[in-house]
Amino acid sequence: MINHSWLPVGDIKTQSLGDALQQNSTIMTLYLSWNKIGAKGAQHLANALHINKTITTLDLKGNTIGHQGAEDLANALQVNKTLTTLELGGNEIGTKGAQALANALRINKTLTSLNLYSNAIGDQGAEDLGNALQINETLTTLTLYGIQIGAKGAQDLGNALQINEVTKILVLPPLQVISSFTQTLTTLDLAFNQISDEGAQDLAYALQINKVTPSFTQTLTTLDLAVNDIGGQGAQDLGNALQINKTLTTLYLVTNEIGDEGAQVLANALQFNKVTTIFVLVLSLHVTS
C-alpha cells in the first residue's frame, strides 16, 4: 500500500510513480487524494493501469484531473482487469469525463465501486451513466452526491436501477425518483444535499408506506441525511415515520437544526421502534424524557 494523501505530489512526481507502478507487482492500494494532481498526472497513472496487474484500489479524491484525466483513466479501465475501487470525487471531471467513464463501464467487468461525488456531471452525465448501468453487471457501489443534476438526470439513474439489480448502493441527491429505485437498495446516502424539511417529508412518507406499497424502503436499512438543512418539522415527520417503519436500522441526522421539538419526537419514536439507531450530533440538542 502507498498512502501519499495530502502531500503535494503534483504531476511531475506522479510521472515517476506511474513509471514505477508499471514494473511493480506487489502494491495493491494507492492513496493519492488531495495531492494537486492534474490531467498529466492522471495520464501517467492511467498508463500504469494499462500494464499493472496488482492495484485494486486507486484513490484520487480532491485533485484536479479534469475531463481529460478522467478520459485517460476511463480508457485504462477498458483494458484493466484488476482495479475494483476508483475514487474520483471532487476532480472537476464534468460531463465529458462522466461520459468517458460510462463508456468504460459498458466494457469493464471488474470495477465494483466508483465514487464521483462533487463533480458537476449534469443531467447528460447522469444519463450516460444510467445507460451504462443498464449493461454493466459488476458495479455494486456508485457515489454521486453533489453532481448538480435535476429531475431528468435522477430519472435516468432511477430507470437504470430498475433494470440493474446488481448496483445496490446509489448515492443520489434528488428525491424525485426515489420511489422508483430498485427493491434491492439497502443504503441511501443523501448527505450534503440541502433536501430541507420538504425532502425529509417525502422520505418520511416513503418510510411509512413500505409495508403496503412496493418501494425501495422494503430493503432500506441505512439512511444518511447528514448536513441537509433539516429543521424541526422534518425531524418530526421522520420521527412519526419511524413509529411505523420496522426495516430501517440506522439513521444519520448529523448537523441538522432539528431543535428540541424535533429531537423529542425522534426520542418518542424510539420508544416504539426498537430497531433503528439514530445518530444526531448537534451541540444544541437537548432531549428530555
From TrEMBL:
The keyword Repeat applies. The keyword Repeat applies. SMART domains: LRR_RI. GO terms for cellular component: cytosol; nucleus; perinuclear region of cytoplasm. It comes from the Eukaryota. Keywords: GTPase activation, Leucine-rich repeat, Repeat. Coiled coil: none annotated. InterPro entries: Leu-rich_rpt (IPR001611), LRR_dom_sf (IPR032675), RanGap (IPR027038). GO terms for biological process: nucleocytoplasmic transport. PANTHER family: RAN GTPASE-ACTIVATING PROTEIN 1. It comes from Adineta steineri. This is Uncharacterized protein. GO terms for molecular function: GTPase activator activity; small GTPase binding.
